[in-house]
Amino acid sequence: MSADQTESIDELRACLLNESGKVPLAHRFRALFLLKSLGRDGDNEAIDVIGAGFRDDSALLKHELAYVLGQTKNMHAVPTLRGVLQDVAEDPMVRHEAAEALGALGDVDSLELLTDYFHNDPLEVIRQTCELAIERIKWENSKAAKEETLQESAFSSIDPAPPMPSEIAQVQKLQEILVDQAVPLFERYRAMFRLRDLGTPDAVDALITGFDDPSALFRHEIAYVFGQLSDPRSAPALIKVLQNGAEEGMVRHEAAEALGSIATDEVMPVLQGFLNDKERVVRESAIVALDMYEYERSEEAEYAALPATA
Ligand SMILES: [Fe+2]
Ligand SMILES: [Fe+2]
What we know:
Layout: H1 9-16, H2 25-40, H3 44-52, H4 59-71, H5 78-86, H6 92-104, H7 111-120, H8 124-140, H9 143-147, H10 171-179, H11 185-198, H12 201-208, H13 216-229, H14 235-243, H15 249-262, H16 267-272, H17 280-297, H18 301-304
The structure holds fe (ii) ion (2 copies).
């Protein structure tokens, strides 16, 4: 399947939902990318097909569904995302992505729900995600958002926090904010995305220091940013994270995907070593990353141009 063909919504549904029971995971991800662009163009049926995927048992796939819904700017996704956040039996990584997606959609009407989970969810990863989503929605509707000058980002993703204003460009200063536990999480994320947008070798080194953070959510976002940057300079730090069996699956998964985006001849054999990892989300990340690599090597340009995943 390639991105330029015109498949019907029924074909995309059959592929995403694995109706035959024989669709490889990577093909399902590709169907999701196609559904995403339909959903972004206002096709609510595509949003519903993505929503039907939450009945699956792969946390990796489901967290990607939530991420994609947040990137569509289509408010038809809101009820589904709220339901996922409220489903406490759901995998925390999937619930996290649903809360983040509500923030990405800037859904003011979800503030009450997000505030509830920010105060009361037993899991730190959910509380912190809700904190960020609340702040993002407030920021988007603030005076500051209209007055700040932000550097135009090379990345098309809607992020959990905007970068810091462009006049803040000193890597050392940003690194201090990044790791300062006394600074609100939203501001530390803003420093993170500012460092990403600077993207210099110094900025990459500064971001690596974020892997020492006590918050798994924070560490997974550092790995996500490295996936976007795709700078081989971050590869040794990402490999260390992936190899650390004591690290959270959510963080190791993001490190695997980032290595898949870096895709040098050195990192791909490393990923092969994780195809049988004890953690399902890590195994599946390695499978999808290696598949993407194959596509890029076979010069399927349209697939290589697909945006970064969550
Ligand atoms: Fe995430
Ligand atoms: Fe992810």
